[in-house]
Structures are given as structure tokens and as C-alpha cells.
Amino acid sequence: MSIDGVILAAGYSERAGQFKPALDLGGKPLLIRCIESMAEICDRIIIVAGFNFGRIIELVDDLPKVSVIENENFKLGMFSSVRCGIREVTANRFFIIPGDQPVVKSSTLKKVADIKADIIVPRYNGKKGHPVLFASRLISEILAMPDTAILRDFIHSNETYILDVDDPGIGMDVDTMEDYQKIRTYFIGEMQ
User: Fold this and answer.
1) Partners of 54 in the beta sheet?
2) Cα 113 from Cα 49, distance rounded (Å)
3) Extents of the domains making up the chain
4) Which positions ≥6 away from 64 have C-beta within 8 Å?
5) Which is the most buried residue in 97, 110, 137, 158, by most CB within 10 A?
6) Rounded to whole angstroms, how far apart are CA atoms 4 and 120?
7) Which CATH number among 3.40.50.2300, 3.40.30.10, 3.30.70.1520, 3.90.550.10 corresponds to the domain 3-191?
8) pLDDT 10s digits, 136-163
């Protein structure tokens, strides 16, 4: 069964004060680390870019299985990027993850993908995280939601399989430079 990955990387990175996708994490851009965690399990990886679109293209230039699409309405918020990305999905199922979550383990994605359900959400120590795996037959329902919608509302209003995983990375994102330092420390620890 085929799986696409949708990485949401269209935002301004305002709270971080720097362009998050390009931040260095162990010698590679943060966005590349996010792609690498999905590469083994996903047939295609769709990156939704908006702000600094050209820089995203530079970061992922020539990577296999990766395509970049532009969300011209990224100022409307993350749900506009979700819509943009899932319109490109051609696989039976798809993961969605924010592009500022670079330390999710590939093994976690594999465990999530092994579950047969329409929506699978990973959970670590009682806290739900990303990426979420969806059946592609749900795309039309998601696209029909109002512009003001939040994908979390769709998840909560549908039957969801919660999978407990041993991966703190599912809840680690870079909102601030303090978050970035925590992720760098975690990443270095995992590599040793």
C-alpha cells in the first residue's frame, strides 16, 4: 500500500526569528532531517512551501522522491497548507507533519504505517504528536472543511487509532530558538 508524506513548511518562522527549515541540525538543514525520517517509508514526499519559497527549493534541490508545491495563500494559516499538500497526494495513505519536527524516528513512521485504520496518531508518554497518518479516501472531507478549520478538529471528530510509541521526537518542534537548542541537544544525544 503506497504512502505519501506531506511536510508543511510554508510559514514565516516568526517566533524563531530565523528561517527554520534552513537551521543546521547535525550538519544538515532541519527540513532535510524531516525528509530523511520519512524517506524510507514514503513513496513521495510533498513539501508545501510559501514564505521564502525559493530557499526551500534550494534546500531540497535534486532530492529523490521530493516535490515542492507553493501555497500562495500561506498567510491564511496552516490549514491552507494542509489543503494545498493533500491535493497532490496520489497514494492510498499519507502522513502529515509540520516541517519543524526533524527528530521523529523512521521506526516510528514504520510502526504507524503497520496499523490498518483511517487515522493513526502517535502518542508518547500520554501526549499525542506527529506525524498523523490518514487514509486518502478522507481527502475530500478534509478539503470540504471551512477555511477557518483546524485539522485537529477533523481528527477529533473521526474514529482515530492512537498508537503508543517510544519516540519523544513526535512532540518536539521548533517554535523558538530555545526549542531549537533542545532539539539540537536531543539529536546529539541520539547520535551517540
Assistant:
1) none
2) 25
3) 3-191
4) none
5) 97
6) 14
7) 3.90.550.10
8) 999 999 999 988 889 999 999 999 999 9
